Amino acid sequence: MESRIFTSGEHKVRLDPFSPLKQDDVDYVTNVLKQIHGNFIELVKERRPSLDVKHKTVFSGDFFTGKDAVSFGLADNTCSDLRAVCQARFGRNVKFERCEPPSGVLGRLRNLVTQMKVEVSINDMLEELTLKQYRP
């Protein structure tokens, strides 16, 4: 397979999988990732004041079981019964409403039109991305 890329802009082909890795690209992406991770850490610390921030694992980028996430302070709790959790938190009189898809001919027609719009939008996006790849 041969890469044929036509672009304008100095960094349009950053991290091209068909080209040798450039140290400049590695440095740039590493810097961006550090900034994003720093923003994430600040947001989590701000919104989760009881979080054990001294725990090395919390901001390692790893994934956890629900039980571990709760023990670190990353999650409030785990449950298998959302209704019971909501009732415990908001009271026994909390109301739950089912969201059913519209029924009848008009409802089905509206769903069909929405589905067609989504499919067209996705197809347009994929086509545009493909064309951008080959544009000079």
From TrEMBL:
The secretion signal range is none
**Any one GO MF annotation of this record:** peptidase activity
Q: What SUPFAM superfamilies has UniProt attached to this entry?
A: ClpP/crotonase (SSF52096)
Coiled coil start-end: none
- GO annotations under biological process? proteolysis
Pfam family for this entry, one: Peptidase_S49
Q: Where is the Peptidase S49 domain?
A: 3-88
Q: Which domain of life is it from?
A: Eukaryota
* InterPro entries associated with the record: ClpP/crotonase-like_dom_sf, Peptidase_S49
The family annotation for this protein states: Belongs to the peptidase S49 family.
Return the protein name: Peptidase S49 domain-containing protein
